[in-house]
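Reproducibility note. Readers wishing to regenerate the assembly model reported in the main text can use the exact inputs given here. Chain order matters: entities are listed in the order in which they were concatenated for prediction.
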Amino acid sequence: MLTIKRVPTVVSNYQEDSQDVAGCGRKCLGKCCLPVSKLPLYAFKPREDNTAGNKNERTISDPEFSFNPLLLGQWEDRMNRGLFRYDVTACETKVIPGQHGFIAQLNEGRHLKKRPTEFRVDKVLQPFDGNKFNFTKVGQEEVLFRFEENCDEDEDEGNDSRTRFFPKSSVLPSAKPSVVAINVSPIEYGHVLLIPRVLDCLPQRMDGESLLLALHMAAEAANPFFRVGYNSLGAFATINHLHFQAYYLNVPFPVEKAPARLVAEKIKNGVKIYELCDYPVRGLVFEGGKNLSDLSDEVSTCCIWLQNNNIPYNLLISDSGKRIFLFPQCYAEKQALGEVSQELLDTQVNPAVWEISGHMVLKRKKDYEDASEDYAWKLLAVVSLSEERFEEVKAYLLEAVDGFILAQEPKKGHTAENLDDVIATATPAEKEDLFQVHGTHAHVHEGCLVLQ
Amino acid sequence: MELRILIRKRKMAAQLSNNQQIDQSLGSRYSTWITEVLDEMPENFLITDPCLSGHPIIFASRGFLKMSGYSREEVIGKNGRIFQGPDTDRRSVLEIREAIREERGIQIKLLNYRKDGTPIWIVFHLSPVFSEDDGRVIHFVAVQVPISRKASISQSGFRNLEPVSGLDSTAPNSCTWSRHSPDVGNLDVKADCPKLEICFGSCRREILKDSVRGLNKSLLPDASPEPDSRELQCEDACEDINLEKKKATAAIDSILSTLAHYSKLMGKSVCGRRCSSVHPRLTRITSSLNISLGRIKQSFVLTDPYLPDMPIVYASDGFLNLTGYSRHDVLGRNCRFLHGPDTDPDTVAQIQENMQSWKTFHVRILNYRKDGSSFWNCLHVSPARNASGKIAFYVEAQLDESSLNEDDGLTPEMRQLGAIGAVKVAVRTLFDAGPSKSS
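Running the prediction on these inputs yields the following structure tokens for the assembly.
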């Protein structure tokens, strides 16, 4: 009988000083305590270069020099202080044999001790409710550091303003602190939550600025095995307070290995949209752009459209912010309609972003031992939108992002080979036609099931 | 100001020892003529060393330098990712990374960038070089064959091939197969189109198992993979770069047999595939673990609690710099060689006691370098678990109490903990099935 062991608490060098009794006394993240806190601050300078560069000189901007050691070191410190509900590294993990390499973990304690979901799951947009659990109630010991952009223009001893780390930083009155906190029920080592603008108490709802912050965090880590994920309400987010998740796992995710075909490209900023092939969940992949803002703009436009049309979705930021996967989903609705088999329901796996990406946490030993690629595929296939529905949503999204040229389905007998020439010689009317995207302006059907 | 000079000096010293390691990477395994011989070879290729921090390039052929426009100094010591650029397909990069992690070969079409920023399509063929006696990967050879403009112009009916993946450790090492994805629609491949590059994905053909024939005859033949279900088929478009692929495979053969020949002269034979007779224990520090650990700059060692006298099985560059020992000096030995005349025996006893109960702990102990000088070591020790959830190694991270605080706000103690965390992440995905203690 497996029992959940707490990590033995060892005396740590890094006990926080509890001298200041400002705030409500609890040292939480609310308006009472956070503004008077002295949390560490990692102030990043956005990296201009969106491509893989080589880093010769070890400077503060070298991720191996600061971001990763900071996050991992602080996480290890919190482990030593006994702040986690269990030692996740003691949970058995394996790669399921097969073509896709789904990853399964046996974690019997996580769901027993995790906070239950406190809101309805059929609406993607719901207002923030201060009475329900949210991150302002979290103790500051769970925060590893603040993560914000360095807007400082000051030149310091001849150096340009650069990425800087401040071990103890006061919160300026004009600041909107964003924090990186531990996830006390971790899926993997280093599992953290990124909470943008904590004090603004934003509901779980994507916006461009927050997505960009998440992309910057992925870029700061500059580690392909550090992924950032987002679950909308209705797609198994459990807390209605805007947050992203991230953790380290040094294996590729099945979704990252899946082939994808190019769907559209925007010449103006070089952003490309692909569609996943041969993967149980239908989804789009965004890549490219001259910088992170370009990519962030296009993706957040899509997320906002989905939110406004009540379509739950999950987002995976991969490859240090260079690839973003977007999965509209409908599992919760199918569950409510009784469309999910009892066998799958019994495993109690809620397919959120990590599961959809191919990393599954299983609660029962039996499910873990029996886990097969078939099972993983079946579970995820239920999450996916149907082909018809996905095509419909895709068309709407392409319309929403605007300015993309389709890579395929050429009209009027044009082939992709001579698309170049076609654009060059097209009349304005033809060009408009060429840039037009499939789709109607009809009302979007609610729900993921195709209404016959 | 003085602080900065000191820090710079330390960085230069570390860089110097780095350069020495790169220079010695070939010299320590192959006979002295190897560099000359490799220099004579016409092919474009690189040789990398996964055991060195950053998985650097240690050799670049003339042909490669000419093709890429870089000078030797600009390439040696760097990681291969410097040749990637904005339009390099990220998925291909992932596949290469995976092949390295899984210590197997890969042949893939890839977009590289020259020094002047111009892109160039190549057939990229990577192959591991195994040490015959212990089966470790000691080098990777990467061949690049440029694809001619004519061959890259699109044909109809190009289909994307899928990788065979998954960490199946029983699969033969150098042989993987691709499979059709019948549901993928027809895709057009177009290269060298500056404005609208619709090129993506990759046409892959893995190393054919007989591509490394003619090497050491003591190799046991690999079990052949199921040929029927996974037989390779390629559409017409792939045939267009067939010539380049054949060239790449031939180049790999040629380079591997050269390395094999010159390694034999040193008595430390290498070959293109891992011998199945290798003692499983010795391959526990896989090359992927090596690469992950190599990124960690701090001083630490991994010790194996299941081997007699708990020997060091991995030592970071930081550890060697701190203590003055060489890797050869320390691997296989217990850490007690760091103790000296004034080391407190009670502290030593405390360490032993804690380790027996598999705890995380830290102590302050007087240690000695190779040259006899002493330093106060803030030693932090923690067990690291592998994928099975069981303890695989002990991580011991050393910190010289008097070490300088680099001026970026992160204290040495924070970095030390960061190193331990990074080791735990690396060991976590060690899927090796060694004997382990349940706790």
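We highlight two features of this model. DSSP finds 13 helices and 16 strands in chain A. The longest strand of chain A covers residues 143-149.
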